[in-house]
Q: What sequence folds into this?
């Protein structure tokens, strides 16, 4: 029966080319818009290269220190120091891997490479970290290997660079191990070349990865608080339970330290370490995340994106159903029930909706690829602009995931139900005589 | 004709109900997405108050101790200041440069950072929030920026004035806000946060300027700085004004390689050069550009949907309205009149839906307010229509109504034209 409905729908579609085109384009637009939103969040949340462990990765981005000097209270919101890394974080029991990133301003914002041909400095993104970083993020090494713990402790100027940067510096990504390049007028030796991560995987993206010990005064604490510094910390845990245990372990450290220094300084990590999922929706770690408010906001956007096209399609279906009333009258007079007729109309529309869905998915991919430099941040409150010279890579795994197809299919069914059910049901309620009268 | 239009719409109220619902929804959504766009566009089009098109900025950096060529002897504060001022003078000698000035700190027009304070006019008790920008006296700062002169001293005289640390230059709107006059020369303010009364004297005024390209003008005070060491090298720039008629693009093309090779002194070197317009664009990339992209994409989506919906609904109606149109044509109606009739139906539908949608949005706006623009400083009574609730609501409603009407008419025009061209005999064959 469904096959028959679909055949009839195909014929009707060929007869009413204009209606079919408008219907398919309208549906396509709705699906495209919602799929763009879905893919943006998929890229933010799902495990993609090299952040394949996102589900088990936790972050401690900053810390608040309250300092008491006589009657004055001052607050500093920064990160943790080298001393904190050594005493609090590296020895943690409830984490498989602990890695530190230095957010030293000089290195985070002002890194320029001086190319050998003296064609002018160009800016690069440099990440100062430790060897454990490469155990959390699954980088594919094309050559060489990460710098070692010995490199880190000796402060050697070794660097892992991306294949893109290798090509820009040396004209090739092969055979560059051991070569040197000038970064802020200091020579760095290449110890490994990795396949470049996408700029969209912000937690791991960089062009140069170097030991944090290359920064002068990396052991220095800030604001005269021994545990306040420039390091953020990333953790890899086995599962959610270990994540909770890690949070408890850190809370215990905070409690003890605050008790030990009641008249000096107090530290606060809020609810950190936070999961990767939380980072996708939270702007600041100190803000309390209202999950329900967030769900309401996204549901509302999602509904509006579907509701307007659904109303649009409903209007068209209502007008079209009037044209088909005589046909429905004849079917009814030969014994077809309202339920059967409704099912037929729904299947017919589903065919058109699926075609629109396919069009929408293609349109969404096209928009995401062409506008990749800005589309992925279009929903963010605080936009991170792509630096000059950085190519935003959109990998196939980001766009063509099975989950994306499933979401597109579900959307099509939902849109079909939203748009066709009410006008079709309303139209089929008319008595046979009235329906047949339309034929005259 | 209006009577006929209303009768037609009433007779087809069920069919048009869907369209009406969509129009109401789109009119509300249009308010949500287009209000920020309209307000930001309005604010961006307010003149900046200085001449940015002939300005460019050079960033200065210092070699790190591990870098080749680093000279520990050149790292003391006096040498760093000398080296920096030497770089400023050298840049001025480049061909096509009219003048240069040091820009220190992170607070200057369109800077990434900012510094704010509260000032109270002497004899008054109301604190006015004021943004502070810093300059080095005797360095042609005001002329290089090309600020419009205010009443009192000229920009050149303001640059050359012998300031004390408790002097300042106010923009005209700041003077007006504090002292209710455009020329506040000689008047004094109390710095709001101090426990003891600390007076700051107004030396002169410049024309009103915008702190950021997408803001409305806010009160600004220019404060002199005398100690340069804390700003060099991290917050040291060189501002360059080009001579009249010199192409910025060509200048940058020639200046950049020279700068990389020649513009260095001691441990300091010039790192990058960008036109001021490029700096403004970079700043806007963080704030207004995302609003344009996100909101216009949303608006486009909903308006295209609306257009498709209107076109589809009216096209499908043409089949059932052939006979009606045939009768009208046989009684002497022209095709133009038929088109106008259908367009009129669209216009009335849009008017009813917009009025409903705008009324619903008004309930929200009364409670939450309309979009205030991107300026987060406490607003000043600036006289712009976007700052007045009634004018703001009426003008934006008008713009959105016209936009919706245009979209609806685009959607109706083809089906209307199609139905108006049929021959009466063919249309009335079944009658």
A:
């Amino acid at each position: 029966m469904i096959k028959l409905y679909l055949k009839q729908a195909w014929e009707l579609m060929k007869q009413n080319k204009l209606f079919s085109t408008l219907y398919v384009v309208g549906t396509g637009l709705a699906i495209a818009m919602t799929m763009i939103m879905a893919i943006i969040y998929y890229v933010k949340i799902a495990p993609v290269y090299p952040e394949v462990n996102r589900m088990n990765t936790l972050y401690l981005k900053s810390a608040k220190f309250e300092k008491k000097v006589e009657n004055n209270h001052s607050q500093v919101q920064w990160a943790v120091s080298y001393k904190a890394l050594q005493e609090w974080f590296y020895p943690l029991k409830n984490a498989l891997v602990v890695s530190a990133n230095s957010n030293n301003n000089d290195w985070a914002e002002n890194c320029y490479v001086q190319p050998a041909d003296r064609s002018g400095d160009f800016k690069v993104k440099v990440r100062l970290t430790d060897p454990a970083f490469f155990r959390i993020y699954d980088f594919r090494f094309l050559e060489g290997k990460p710098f070692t713990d010995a490199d880190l402790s000796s402060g050697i100027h070794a660097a892992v660079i991306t294949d893109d940067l290798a090509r820009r510096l040396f004209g090739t990504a092969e055979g560059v191990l051991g070569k040197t390049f000038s970064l802020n007028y200091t020579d760095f030796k290449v110890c490994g070349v990795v396949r470049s991560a996408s700029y969209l995987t912000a937690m791991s993206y960089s062009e140069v990865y170097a030991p944090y010990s290359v920064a002068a005064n990396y052991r220095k604490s800030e604001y005269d608080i021994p545990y306040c510094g420039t390091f953020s910390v990333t953790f890899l845990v086995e599962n959610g339970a270990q994540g909770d245990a890690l949070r408890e372990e850190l809370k215990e450290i905070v409690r003890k330290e605050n008790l030990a220094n009641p008249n000096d300084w107090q530290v606060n990590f809020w609810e950190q370490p936070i999961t990767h999922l939380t980072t996708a929706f939270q702007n600041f770690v100190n803000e309390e995340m209202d999950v329900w408010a967030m769900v309401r906001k996204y549901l509302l956007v999602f509904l509006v994106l579907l509701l307007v096209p659904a109303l649009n399609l409903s209007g068209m279906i209502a007008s079209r159903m009037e044209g088909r009333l005589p046909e429905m009258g004849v079917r009814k007079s030969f014994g077809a029930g309202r339920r059967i007729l409704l099912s037929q109309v729904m299947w017919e529309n589903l065919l058109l909706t699926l075609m629109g869905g396919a069009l929408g998915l293609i349109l969404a991919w096209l928009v995401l690829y062409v506008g990749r430099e800005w589309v992925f941040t279009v929903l963010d409150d605080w936009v991170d602009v792509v630096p000059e010279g950085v190519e935003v890579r959109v990998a196939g795994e980001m766009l063509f995931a099975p989950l994306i197809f499933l979401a597109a299919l579900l959307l099509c069914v939902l849109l079909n139900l939203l748009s066709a059910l009410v006008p079709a049901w309303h139209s089929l309620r008319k008595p046979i005589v009235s329906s047949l009268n339309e034929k005259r | 004709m209006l009577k006929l239009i209303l009768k037609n719409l009433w007779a087809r109220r069920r069919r048009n109900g869907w369209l009406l619902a969509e129009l109401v929804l789109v009119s509300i959504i249009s308010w949500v997405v287009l209000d920020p766009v309209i307000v930001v566009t309005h604010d961006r089009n307010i003149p900046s108050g200085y001449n940015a098109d002939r300005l460019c900025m050079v960033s200065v950096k210092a070699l790190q101790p591990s870098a080749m060529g680093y000279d520990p002897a050149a790292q003391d504060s006096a040498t760093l200041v000398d080296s920096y001022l030497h770089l400023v003078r050298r840049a001025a000698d480049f061909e096509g440069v009219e003048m240069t000035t040091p820009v220190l700190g992170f607070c200057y027009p369109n800077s990434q950072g900012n510094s704010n304070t509260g000032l109270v006019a002497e004899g008054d008790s109301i604190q006015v929030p004021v943004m502070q920008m810093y300059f080095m006296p005797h360095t042609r700062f005001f002329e290089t920026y090309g600020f419009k002169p205010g009443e009192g001293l000229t920009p050149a005289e303001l640059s050359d004035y012998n300031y004390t640390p408790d002097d300042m230059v106010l923009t005209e709107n700041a003077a007006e806000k504090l002292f209710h006059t455009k020329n506040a020369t000689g008047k004094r303010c109390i710095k709001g946060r101090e426990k003891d009364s600390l007076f700051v004297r107004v030396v002169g005024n410049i024309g009103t300027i915008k702190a950021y390209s997408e803001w409305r003008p806010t009160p600004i005070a220019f404060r002199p700085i005398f100690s340069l060491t804390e700003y060099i090298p991290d917050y040291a720039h060189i501002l360059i004004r080009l001579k009249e008629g010199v192409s910025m693009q060509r200048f940058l093309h020639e200046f950049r390689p020279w700068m990389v090779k020649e513009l260095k002194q001691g441990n300091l070197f010039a790192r990058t050069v960008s036109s001021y317009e490029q700096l403004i664009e970079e700043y806007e990339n963080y704030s207004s550009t995302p609003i344009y992209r996100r909101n216009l994409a949303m608006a486009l989506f909903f308006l295209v949907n609306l257009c498709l919906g209107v076109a589809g609904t009216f096209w499908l109606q043409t089949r059932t309205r052939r006979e009606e149109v045939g009768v009208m044509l046989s009684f002497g109606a022209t095709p133009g009149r038929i088109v106008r009739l259908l367009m009129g139906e669209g216009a009335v539908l849009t008017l009813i839906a917009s009025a409903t949608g705008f009324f619903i949005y008004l309930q929200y706006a009364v409670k939450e307010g309309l979009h205030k623009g991107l300026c987060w400083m406490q607003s000043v009574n600036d006289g712009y229509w976007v700052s007045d609730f009634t004018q703001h609501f009426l003008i934006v409603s008008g713009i959105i109504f016209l936009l919706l009407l245009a979209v609806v008419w685009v959607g109706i025009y083809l089906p209307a034209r199609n139905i108006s061209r049929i021959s009466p005999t063919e249309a009335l064959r079944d009658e």
